[in-house]
């Protein structure tokens, strides 16, 4: 029997709760204790907790501490931190995994280890090497980060008629170079109008600034005046309110919504990821829009730069650092359960992925492990992957860190007890 570990259950390929061979699922839902130590600006977090539970607990203890993890409150810290984990503060503080300072883990022999007893190799591997590979993480200890009492958020939607293409093109030059307090991501989708002749592309510029509006406006005026940001577009709020804002809750909603583990909208979807090192020309962007007219899809561009450029690509297994301008997540959605429908949409996103080839990272074509994608290499559904097979996707997710991950895996888990379709292989 295989062992599958489930934290928040948000795995993109369902690897925490689906397998073609009989398996036992270890569900961590009850390991949800979070202890925030304000004096030490740290927290121990049970790995069954969600991001929302973490944010809410921190905010109850302090108005000026936060944590740089993902946007969706229902995502679990078990899988999320195991694969890196990024959110709207990554330009200032890096990934969630960059801020882990200790962990408690059960190894294959049933021993409970901490940073000291597991040693630096294993402690390195679990901070980004992907879940269900090295052991079962019971708790993370993280360093909390400073947030100002007031942050500023804005969302500006631009259609093609409002120069969306030019603005997205320009963003590629400024988004990754702004002051690290400023994060502007872009969600590009096809507007879903009932009239099939009136399809529109909308680029939604979503932003948080770790400071007040009066400091943000001149930065925008100087670096990105074309976006036309006005004072009335901006809202000042506390950091915890901004986590609700990014999760799509209306202003004034109780913070308790962060504690819900129910994903508000559940639809079928398939996602893929890319990293961009050179700005995509306007003509290249227009090709994406053309494909968008064929299916209900979204792409999200998340800027790098700032702190992400300063951290060495081998500091933790997540290798996508300096040189990357931004990360792309491609997504396609549908509602019907039939296989033929799924196949049609999945084929469409594979076409989009193929279209993107000239514009994104090459040798390897990099991918983000938390957006697991079983398309990008050969997977053995029985859970055994040879080193050579695994290396195909291994270097996409981990680049030069893959060999060290295999070394650690072989040392700590030679029998491949913790495994899934894309877990790190053991050489024995
Ligand atoms: C709606 C949504 C929003 C998202 N937003 C973001 C975002 O803003 N930023 C971002 O970086 N990513 C984001 N993601 C991706 C997310 O980081 C991954 O899906 C992540 O792996 C989810 O972790 P989980 O614990 O919820 O999932 P699970 O399915 O429980 O786990 C994912 C993987 O990790 C393993 N695992 C889980 N817990 C443990 C543990 N304690 N020890 C060892 N292995 C474990 C599982 O076996 C599985 O292989 C999002 C995903 C979704 C569905
Ligand atoms: C935090 O520090 C203050 C002042 O130094 C001290 O009085 C308090 O006991 C500390 N609290 C904890 C939980 O350590
Ligand atoms: C679009 O850009 C052109 C110049 O490049 C400018 O003249 C025009 O005002 C812009 N349109 C909008 C809606 O901003
Ligand atoms: C898009 O439109 C279709 C048909 O009107 C509808 O079924 C679907 O739910 C809509 N999707 C979104 C995200 O609103």
From TrEMBL:
Pfam families: BBE, FAD_binding_4. Residues 1-147 form the FAD-binding PCMH-type domain. GO terms for molecular function: FAD binding; oxidoreductase activity. Its cofactor is FAD. Keywords: Alkaloid metabolism, FAD, Flavoprotein, Glycoprotein, Signal. The keyword NADP does not apply. InterPro entries: BBE (IPR012951), FAD-bd_PCMH (IPR016166), FAD-bd_PCMH-like_sf (IPR036318), FAD-bd_PCMH_sub1 (IPR016167), FAD-bd_PCMH_sub2 (IPR016169), Oxid_FAD_bind_N (IPR006094). GO terms for biological process: alkaloid metabolic process; nicotine biosynthetic process. It comes from the Eukaryota. Pathway: Alkaloid biosynthesis; nicotine biosynthesis. Involved in the biosynthesis of pyridine alkaloid natural products, leading mainly to the production of anabasine, anatabine, nicotine and nornicotine, effective deterrents against herbivores with antiparasitic and pesticide properties (neurotoxins); nornicotine serves as the precursor in the synthesis of the carcinogen compound N'-nitrosonornicotine (NNN). Catalyzes a late oxidation step subsequent to the pyridine ring condensation reaction in the biosynthesis of alkaloids. Belongs to the oxygen-dependent FAD-linked oxidoreductase family. This is FAD-binding PCMH-type domain-containing protein.
